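Appendix B. Chain record.
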Amino acid sequence: MRRDPDRDDGAYLWDMLRHAEELVRIAGSRTIEDLKSDRIFRLAVERLIEIIGEASRSVGDETRRRHANIQWRAIEAQRHVLAHEYGDIDVHKIWRVVTTHVPELIEQLRPIVPDPPPDPLPEE
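Structure tokens predicted for this chain:
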């Protein structure tokens, strides 16, 4: 994905955070057995991880340096596996991403993500 010149790092960080939180929410009380047996659940999990990885690719170098505790390369590498090596996906690794790495990422992102952008279609 090319960096959109109309978006700043805050927008990409916001995308990462909201999709990570969505991933944790849908995983909820699910188990690895659900991930193995429920195709729709697995596809949703994989897609959310891809989006997080894609957004991370667009975060600029300066922001990455300021927040070196975030595993930028690992996030992007996981996205690459899902997008390009889909035949070799290890469900145990994906479950570890969902249950360990994504919650850690959320805790790292919350303090640095700016307020969400305004809703383009506010309710009346």
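Further analysis of this model is presented in Appendix C.
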